[in-house]
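2024-03-11 09:14:02 INFO worker-7 job=invfold-0412 stage=load source=structure_tokens
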């Protein structure tokens, strides 16, 4: 059969039928349907029918997707996925041509839906399929997933797509030679090679020398390098660390700032990104979900905000999202990510009309997939300047200030049941502190007890009590930020007797990275948000950095912390 243009012009309002390979007919109007016109161009007119039938080289299932009779997103059952893959195979060639934009959009929708299932058990298979069907952007995304997770999948979790063991040696060599492989120790590459060879040792051992040429000798210690002296190892530069610490906004020199800063663990220096926030923000929330940076709430130094903004690292443009139900200030340490959703609890709600600043007992959750904030169950106590962390599939919220008193109470939120339960109190009232999940424990770091800023660290020991650790911060600090990074708890900036720029690392795991120390951030600030930015190095490097920023002057060290005295704020919220 010859598929050709039927000769009809697009402005003819003529009833026709699209006929699938199985002979199923789908009535359409060329004048009203762009996809029908595309199918008319690539189809063939049946010569044996008085009514115009357009015979297309697609199955009925594919035609339904193209005509919108069935949504790609409705494919959720396991048996549907084979048909979806067959449809992708049928339209792949046409979807790569500019003459068929509607077919191309259907191809993109199918690829997007398939990509949404990407995980350890199918990443190599999906990458292979995307390349096979010329889905370049999706192939790049699946490759990024593989590069970032390869070492973890093979060496740590030991759960990996069986297609990994079917890789040709040339493809595995190309993969392991990639600068983007995420690893803490170069010797892990040798482990990946061993795993691949062990699947068929007799036939694959001969490829070891070729594969070992991807191991970078400059990243090995002297003893390990000597043990591989029989191989020609790579002399390429060491791979750069993929995960970074990112600082978003904060209270800088008596005003909110719009800066994004990040720590480069390889050069051991902080860098200032050319990317800015949509507005100056402090005491706000921020989160990274599926490569998107979200900022929400906080204060721009003038009023409390309820806006949510999203930043794509592909376009580097801010997009406004759904607003929170309430303007919320003092939420930097009380916002967390769980199950790819953003949760935020408490805060201060400054109402412009009544000029009254009240602490909140409400919570909200944002789902990026639906772009909607919804209310959660309420806290038992109203509180701002509290801290939250995900632990054992629940969200712990502790301490804070209720407008009159600093709190010691702890509440645990159950995301499934949408309710809070009271928990064992902290040993003392505290506010402006950090709560960090680290080493499979919860740690309270720093804070203010009403009289002094604390350098103490308390751990929840799973035995029904909070236990004070022997380790302490060098500086007692509040309104700081902290996160778990590379086997350490990293405490950043905040307020001591002045606004701080210093960083501290503590409580290392046995395999913690060898930092020695982390230098001060470029500008002293408080009320900042710190994120563990997974796989963001390439994004931030591509965006560029501010090459020269002025050295800190004495005026950067504020004697007063701006709004960081929120636990002592007057009822009008002016601090």
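2024-03-11 09:14:09 INFO worker-7 stage=emit residues=575
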């Amino acid at each position: 059969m010859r598929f050709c243009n039927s000769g009809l012009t697009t402005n003819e309002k003529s009833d026709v039928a699209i006929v699938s390979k199985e002979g199923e007919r789908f009535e359409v109007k060329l004048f009203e349907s762009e996809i029908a016109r595309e199918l008319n161009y690539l189809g063939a007119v049946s010569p044996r029918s008085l009514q115009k039938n357009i015979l297309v080289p697609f199955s009925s299932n594919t035609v339904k997707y193209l005509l919108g009779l069935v949504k790609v997103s409705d494919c959720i059952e396991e048996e549907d996925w084979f048909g979806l893959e067959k449809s992708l195979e049928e339209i792949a060639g046409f979807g790569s041509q500019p003459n068929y934009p509607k077919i191309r959009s259907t191809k993109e929708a199918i690829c997007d839906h398939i990509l949404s299932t990407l995980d350890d058990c199918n990443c190599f298979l999906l990458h292979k399929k995307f390349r096979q069907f010329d889905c370049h952007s999706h192939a790049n995304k699946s490759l990024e997933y593989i590069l970032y997770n390869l070492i973890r999948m093979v060496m740590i979790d030991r759960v990996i797509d069986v297609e990994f063991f079917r890789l040709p040696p040339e493809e595995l060599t190309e993969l392991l030679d990639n600068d983007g492989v995420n690893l803490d120790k170069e010797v892990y590459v040798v482990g990946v090679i061993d795993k691949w060879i062990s699947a068929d040792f007799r036939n694959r051992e001969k490829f070891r020398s070729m594969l070992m040429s991807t191991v970078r000798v400059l990243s090995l210690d002297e003893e390990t390098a000597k043990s591989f002296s029989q191989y020609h190892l790579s002399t390429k530069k060491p791979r750069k660390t993929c995960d970074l610490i990112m600082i978003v906004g904060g209270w800088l020199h008596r005003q909110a700032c719009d800066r994004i800063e990040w720590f480069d663990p390889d050069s051991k220096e902080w860098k200032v990104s050319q990317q800015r926030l949509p507005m100056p923000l402090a005491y706000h929330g921020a989160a990274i979900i599926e490569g998107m940076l979200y900022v929400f709430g906080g204060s721009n130094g003038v009023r409390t905000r309820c806006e949510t903004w999203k930043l794509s690292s592909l376009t580097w443009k801010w997009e406004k999202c759904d607003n929170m139900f309430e303007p919320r200030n003092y939420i930097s340490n009380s916002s967390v990510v769980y199950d790819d959703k953003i949760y935020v609890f408490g805060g201060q709600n400054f109402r412009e009309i009544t000029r009254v600043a009240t602490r909140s007992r409400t919570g909200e959750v944002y789902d990026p997939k639906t772009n909607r904030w919804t209310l959660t169950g309420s806290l038992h106590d109203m509180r701002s300047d509290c801290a939250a962390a995900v632990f054992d599939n629940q969200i712990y919220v502790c301490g804070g200030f209720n407008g009159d008193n600093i709190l010691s109470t702890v509440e645990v939120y159950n995301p499934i049941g949408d309710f809070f339960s009271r928990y064992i109190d902290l040993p003392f009232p505290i506010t402006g502190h950090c709560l960090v999940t680290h080493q499979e424990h919860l740690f309270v770091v720093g804070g203010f007890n009403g009289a002094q800023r604390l350098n103490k660290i308390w751990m929840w020991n799973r035995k029904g009590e909070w236990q004070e650790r022997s380790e302490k911060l060098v500086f007692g600090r509040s309104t700081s930020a902290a996160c778990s990074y590379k086997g350490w708890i990293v405490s950043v900036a905040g307020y001591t007797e002045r606004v701080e720029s210093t960083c501290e690392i503590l409580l290392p795991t046995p395999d913690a990275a060898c930092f020695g120390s982390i230098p001060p951030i470029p500008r002293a600030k408080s009320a900042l948000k710190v994120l563990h930015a997974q796989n963001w190095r390439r994004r931030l490097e591509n965006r560029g950095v501010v090459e020269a920023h002025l050295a800190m002057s004495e005026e950067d060290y504020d004697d007063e912390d701006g709004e960081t005295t929120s636990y002592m704020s007057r009822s009008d919220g002016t601090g």
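2024-03-11 09:14:09 INFO worker-7 stage=report msg="The chain has three domains: 15-117, 136-227, 244-568."
2024-03-11 09:14:10 INFO worker-7 job finished
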